[in-house]
């Protein structure tokens, strides 16, 4: 099992290129089920989650071909199965995103209830409620969501909560439904917008994406597309937090600053100098950061996927930060590992109080989920001595070659394989 060894104390200087967004690429891959034509995707990050979803689609009969690094061509002209089995779905919650397009185009789907990071309950009831409103017969049986429909019918669908994957699933279902569908209380995340833009390029009729009310006029069929996945705002934000914690002068190329307002605002308040020029972001930090509190919220608020990384920076900041997690109930699992490195953090329910300390001390820590992994890497960059981050398979789910990019910035970090038998 691989792990990362990090020798802290090195300022970050240089340039890195931001990869394509995992959270945009996953639903976009699923959207290939909506047409029998070629779907050519570029800027696809090379990640474990992408490989898992590609295997799932391939098992259904989708032809998946790689054209060099970052480019996939998918063709769903002859599906052999409309089932997403537990063996693949259990490792990645985003697999539920095949549900909507399968029902919309093929009239049936059998999708295992999902797994993924253990950061809290993420029920699929809103997906089920929405598909039922569109006329599907949906049941949960033997651990599977089973849905059938001759053709979905347009309807007004209002979810009980804002759900990103729920919005994406229902959006993909609605584009082939008969008549008009209105998605009220829709998620506004940039990744939802990216999916909508890809569907429009395939011939869908969608308005209002990026707002909480999306209106879809169903069409008979969609055609193929050549589409570039948006840049990863979470990866870019992670590197900005690393610069804020470790200090330095770094440039992020091919970044999406327009989608990162909340993160950039907090980092500027912490003392990081951030300049945006088109899709380039330059971050400079020459002092200890100032503590900044925040609350996680749906977009355009502060993303829950950035909470752990900014907490790691706050761990070595001047002052005390109060952090409230409003999205997932179990997303403080990285706290105990940060405390092992010397952080001073107290948890009270959904709130963490982080009292900044002058320095951290290297130790062996264990990653518990994807973003927790990133927070431990950031902490390791500033800790005295060597920090070993174990179970980095979590990290590989969402960050493409993270250690290589940090090496480009001068970090002393290396991946090593622990070949000891279990």
Would you give an account of this structure?
- This protein has 422 residues and is an alpha/beta fold.
- It contains 14 helices and 26 strands.
- The strands form 7 sheets. It has a 4-stranded mixed β-sheet. A 4-stranded mixed β-sheet has the order 2-15-17-16.
- Strand 20 (344-348) and strand 21 (351-355) form a beta hairpin.
- Helix 1 (22-31) packs parallel to helix 2 (48-60), helix 4 packs parallel to helix 6 and helix 8 (233-246) runs parallel beside helix 10 (307-314).
- The termini are close together.
- The model is unreliable at 116-122 (pLDDT under 50).
Number of helices: 14
Number of strands: 26
Question: Are there runs of 5+ residues with pLDDT below 50, and where?
Answer: 116-122
Radius of gyration based on Cα positions = 21 Å
Question: How do the strands line up in the largest sheet?
Answer: 23-25-1-26
Q: Structural class of the secondary structure composition?
A: alpha/beta
How is the main sheet built? 4 strands, mixed
Report the portion of residues in β strands: 25-35%
Mean of residue pLDDT values = 94
Principal-axis shape: elongated
What is the distance, rounded to the nearest whole angstrom, between the alpha carbons of the first and last residues?
Answer: 10 Å
Helix content: 25-40%
């Amino acid at each position: 099992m691989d792990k990362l060894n990090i020798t802290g104390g090195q300022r970050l200087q240089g340039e890195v290129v931001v990869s394509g967004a995992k959270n945009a690429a996953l639903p976009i891959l699923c959207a290939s089920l909506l047409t029998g034509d070629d779907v050519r995707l570029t800027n696809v990050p090379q990640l474990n989650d992408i490989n898992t979803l590609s295997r799932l689609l391939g098992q259904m009969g989708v032809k998946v071909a790689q054209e060099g690094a970052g480019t996939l061509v998918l063709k769903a002209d002859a599906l052999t199965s409309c089932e997403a089995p537990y063996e693949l779905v259990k490792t990645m919650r985003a697999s539920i995103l095949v549900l909507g397009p399968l029902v919309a185009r093929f009239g049936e789907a059998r999708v295992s209830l999902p797994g993924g990071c253990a950061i809290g309950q993420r029920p699929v009831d809103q997906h089920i409620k929405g598909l039922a409103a569109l006329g599907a017969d949906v049941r949960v049986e033997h651990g599977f969501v089973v849905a059938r429909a001759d053709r979905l019918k347009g309807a007004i669908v209002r979810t009980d909560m804002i759900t990103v994957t729920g919005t994406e699933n229902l959006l993909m279902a609605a584009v082939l439904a008969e008549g008009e569908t209105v998605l009220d209380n829709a998620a506004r995340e940039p990744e939802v917008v990216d999916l909508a833009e890809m569907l429009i390029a395939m011939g869908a009729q969608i308005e209002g994406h990026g707002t909480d009310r999306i209106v879809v006029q169903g069409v008979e069929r969609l055609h193929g597309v050549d589409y570039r996945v948006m840049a990863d705002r979470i990866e870019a934000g992670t590197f900005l937090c690393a610069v804020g914690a470790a200090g330095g002068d770094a440039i992020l190329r091919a970044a999406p600053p327009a989608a990162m307002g909340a993160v950039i605002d907090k980092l500027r308040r912490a003392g990081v100098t951030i300049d945006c020029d088109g899709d380039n972001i330059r971050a400079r930090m020459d002092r200890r950061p100032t503590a900044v509190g925040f609350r996680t919220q749906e977009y355009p608020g502060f993303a829950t996927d950035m909470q752990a990384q900014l907490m790691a920076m706050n761990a070595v900041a001047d002052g005390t930060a109060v952090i409230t997690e409003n999205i997932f109930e179990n997303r403080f699992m990285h706290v105990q590992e940060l405390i092992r490195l010397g952080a001073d953090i107290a948890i009270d329910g959904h709130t963490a109080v982080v009292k900044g300390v002058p320095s951290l001390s290297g130790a062996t820590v264990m990653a518990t989920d994807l973003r927790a992994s990133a927070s431990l890497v950031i902490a390791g960059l500033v800790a005295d001595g060597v920090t070993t981050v174990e179970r980095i398979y979590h990290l590989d789910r969402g960050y493409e070659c993270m250690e290589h990019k940090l090496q480009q910035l001068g970090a002393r970090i290396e991946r090593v394989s622990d070949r000891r038998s279990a």
